Amino acid sequence: MLATVMSTYAQTREFTLEDLNFGGNNYHNMTPENRYLSWWGDELIRTDADECMLVDKATGEETKMFSADDLNEWGGIAESEKILSLFSAMFPYPDQSLILAKTKTERVLIDFKEKKLVWRQSRVGETNEEWNAQSRAVAFVKDNNLYVTDGEGNTKQLTTDGSKEIVYAQSVHRDEFGIYKGTFWSPDGQKLAFYRMDQSMVSDYPLVDIDTRIATEDPIKYPMAGETSHKVTVGVYDLKTGKTIYLDAGDPTDRYFTNVSWSPDSKKVYMIELNRDQTDMELTGYDAESGAKQETLYTEHNDKYVHPMNPITFLPWDSSKFILQSEKDGYNHLYLFDVSGKQIKQLTQGKWVVLDLIGFNKAKKSVIILSTESSDIQNNAYSVDIKTGKRTLLDNGKGCHVNIFEASGHHDEALSYSGKYLFDNYTEPDVPRDVNIINTENAKNVTYFVAKDPWAGMNVPEFSCGTIKAADGATDLYYRMVKPINFDPQKKYPTIVYVYGGPGVRNVEARWHYYSRGWETYMAQKGYLLFILDNRGSSDRGVEFEQATFRHLGVEEMKDQIKGVEYLKSLAYVDSTRMGVHGWSFGGFMTTSLMTTYPDVFKVGVAGGPVIDWKWYEVMYGERYMDTPQDNPEGYAETSLINKAGNLKGKLQIIIGNNDPTVVPQHALSFIKACIEAGTQPDYFVYPGEPHNMRGHQSVHLHERITQYFEDYLK
Questions:
Q1: Which residue from 449, 453, 379, 406 is spatially nearest to 44, judged by alpha carbons?
Q2: What is the 3-state secondary structure (H, E, C) of 667-686?
Q3: Pair 483, 461: CB distance under 8 Å
C-alpha cells in the first residue's frame, strides 16, 4: 500500500462553515488567491477587476496598461453604462490593440493604444450568446428563439417556433457527450451551426413553484431511461445569403448528434453521431451550403458503450489533417487522420489518459496536451511532436496543472496565440496555488505568482493519500484520509466515509490537501476521521476501470468501498462501531446503497439527491451505463433501492432540493414510501425551490444540517 502524508500545522484558530463552505461569508478569504489571465497574441495580460497589467514573460513582473476608468473615458461611455469589471475582458485580435469589454447594455471594442472606441454592439436581452471575432456577429437566444446580430448591428430573427418544447441554440442531450452549448461559428465567422431540439414528444415531469399565491405547476421535459427521447437536428445559417438549411442527417429518432466542428475553410460541418444504445459512433461530414451528407470518415464500436467527448481538431498548419480523440485502445488517446478518413498514426499511447488537447505550437508543429501519464491522480502538461510522437514534460511533474476553468471544460485559453507560451495555474498537495509561465519550445518555467497559504494560523488536520486493492484483488484504488485535529493514535475515532463513486468524477487528486472538501476539515475539527476512496467506475483510469460497473451500477462500487471499510477496520484508531457514510447525487445513491446493503456496517448515513432506481433517471446517462430497463431488467432490479428499503437499520437522512431537475423528487419520495411500507424509519429534509445542489448561503445551512445529523447519532 502506498501512503503519502502531509505534515500537520501547529496552529490554533478553528474554522467555521462560513470559512469552509463555498456559500459561506468568509469562504473567499479562505481559498488560495488567484490571478486571472488572458492572452493578447503572445503577450500575457492580467485582467483584474478594474485594471489590466502586462506581464513580462521572462521575469513575471507587471506593468499597468490601463484601467476600467480609462476605457470608459476613451470610449465615451456614460456613467450609468460604464464598464464595471475587466475580469471577463478579451483581446480577440493578436495583431491589433483592441480589448473587448462589456458595459451594462453593450459589448465594445476599444483601441487601448489609440485610446478610442472603434466598435459597439447592443447586448440587451441576450441569453446563450456567442460572439465571433472574425465577423463581429453574435448569436443569441431571446424568448426561446434564435437571433443573430451582425457586425454592423443588424439583428435578424432566425426562428419563430421556439418554446419550452422546441429549443434552439442551447445545449442538448442533457449536457452529455461534452455538449455545453448550442451554437458553433465557422472559422470565417460567416456561418453559424446551431442545435434545434424538439422535445414535444418527451413526457412532462411535474415540478411545483410554491412562491406563487397558490402553488403552480412548473413542469420540465425529462426523458427517463427506456422512455421516448427528444429529437435533435443541426441547422446552418449563412450571414451572407440570410438563408438557413438543416444538415441532411436522416431521421433523428433515437440518435445523438454531438461534437460539432468546422473545416478550416468553413465549407464543411463535422459531427459525431451515435445510436441510442451508444455502442456505435460515426464521424460524418456535411456540406455547409446544401446540408448534404458527404462522407463518413470514421466509425467505432464497443459492445458496452462508446463515449465521444471531443470534436475533431485540425492541424493549424495543414488543413488536410485532423486529430481525433478515442478510447479504442482502452485509454483516451490522440490519433492523426487525413480528410479522407485514413488513420495516419496514433500520436499518444500508454496506460494513461489524455485529459485535454489544449492546442498547438504552430512553429514547432507540436500539440500541447494535459494527461495522467505521470500519475493516475495528477494532471500534467506535455508537448507532443506530431512527426515523431516524442513527448516532453512541460511542468514540474507533480500535482495538477493548467487549472483554468472554461465552460467547455477545456484549457485552450491558457495557451498563447502561437502556442509558444502556456500559463500554468497549478497546485500540489502542499502547494495552495502557483502560476508559472511555460515556454513550450524548451519547457522553461518562469515563476509568476505564488499564493500564500490562506489557512495559515488555523487549526489544520493531517491529510494523507494512499492506495488499497479493489475487490478484484488486482486494481489499485486511491484514497484520501483526513485525520481529526490533535490526532492521537491511541484513541478510537468515529469515521465517516465520504463517497461519490460514479462515472466522470475523480475525488482523490494530487491537488492542495489531496482535493479535500472544506466540510471534511470541519468534521475533522469536530473529532471525526474522514475517508474518501475512488472505486472502480470513477473517471480517468481507462475503459476497463470505468466499464467494470456496466449494467449494474453500484454493485462493484460498493464492493470496493467495503474494501475501504476493511482497511479502516484494520486501523487501531478507527472505531468500527461508529462508522458513517455521506454522499450527494451518485454519492447519495451509494450512501443509500451502502446503508441498505451492508446495514450492520454503517450506523449513520446522509444521502443527498440520491438516485433510488435507475429507471427514473435520464436517458443518455442512464442507458449508457445500464442499458434500458427493457433490455436489462435484472440489472435494474438488482440496483434498485426500493427493494432494499426494509433492510435499513441505522439512522439515514435523505436530503433533496424539491425542484431537482436532475435527480427528480420521485426517487426520494418512492424510497420513503417503500420504507413506510417496510416499517423502517429514515429521516427526510427538503430545500423548497432548490435544484440538484443548494445554491448560495443555503449550502452553509445544508452542511450545518449534515454535520448535526452525525453529531446527534454517530458521535
A1: 449
A2: HHHHHHHHHHHHCCCCEEEE
A3: yes
Contact 689, 218 (CB under 8 A): no
Interatomic CA distance for residues 422 and 383, integer angstroms: 11
Q: What pLDDT shows up at residue 566? A: 98
Rounded Cα distance, 135 and 186, in Å: 10
Indicate the SS3 state at residue 594: helix
Torsion of CA 410, 415, 419, 420, to 10 degrees: -150
Name, in order, each residue with C-beta under 8 angstroms of 631's C-beta and a sequence gap of 6 or more. Answer: none
CB 156 within 8 A of CB 147: yes
Query: Torsion angle of alpha carbons 385, 391, 395, 397, nearest 10°?
Result: 170
Say if residues 267 and 276 touch (Cβ distance below 8 Å): no
Query: How far apart (Å, rounded) are the C-alpha atoms in residues 36 and 512?
Result: 19
DSSP 595: H
Using DSSP bridges, classify how beta strands 683-687 and 651-657 pair: parallel, antiparallel or unpaired: parallel
506535455: which residue's cell?
382
Residues 6+ apart with CB under 8 A from 656: 608, 609, 610, 663, 665, 667, 668, 685, 686, 687
Report the sign of the C-alpha dihedral through residues 363, 365, 367, 373, in that order.
Answer: negative
- Alpha-carbon distance 464 to 524, whole Å? 13
Report pLDDT for 6.
Answer: 58
Query: What is d(CA 317, CA 154) in angstroms, rounded to the nearest whole number?
Result: 34
What DSSP assignment string belongs to 24-59?
STTGGGSS-----EEEETTEEEEE-SSEEEEEPTTT
Nearest to 575 by CA among 607, 596, 547, 601: 601
User: Phi and psi dihedrals of 431, rounded to 5?
Assistant: -125, 110
C-alpha cell at 181: 452549448
pLDDT at 252: 98
Reference 356, options 368, 344, 373, 374; nearest CA is 368
The residues that bridge with 434 in the sheet, in sequence order, are 426, 450
H/E stretch holding 300 reads strand 293-301
Strands (E), 339-457: 343-346, 354-361, 366-371, 380-385, 391-393, 421-428, 431-439, 444-450
pLDDT in the model for residue 3? 59
pLDDT of residue 13: 83
| Length reported for the chain | 715
Give CA–CA dist 345/354, Å, rounded: 16
Q: Please report the pLDDT score of residue 4 as a whole number.
A: 65
What is the Cα–Cα distance from 136 to 151, expressed in whole angstroms? 4
Q: Can you tell me the distance from the alpha carbon of 410 to that of 407, in angstroms, rounded to the nearest whole number?
A: 8
Ranges in the chain, pLDDT < 70: 1-12
pTM of the complete model beyond 0.90: yes
> Quick one: 595 exposed, middle or buried, by C-beta within 10 A (0-12, 13-18, 19+)?
buried
Q: What per-residue confidence (pLDDT) applies to 9?
A: 44
CA torsion through residues 557, 559, 563, 568, sign:
positive
The pLDDT value recorded for residue 10 is 43
Question: CB neighbours of 102 closer than 8 A, spacing ≥ 6?
Answer: 83, 88, 108, 123
CA distance 189 to 183: 12
Q: How many alpha carbons lie under 13 Å from residue 174 in its C-beta half-sphere? A: 20
Residue 551 has a CB neighbour count (10 Å cut-off) of 17
pLDDT of 350 = 98
Residue 667: C-alpha distances to residues 613, 614, 623, 676, 693 (Å): 7, 9, 17, 15, 15
Per 3-state DSSP, the chain is made up of helix, strand and coil in percentages (nearest 5) of 15, 35, 50
* Active site members: 585, 660, 692
Task: Give the pLDDT score at 244.
Answer: 98
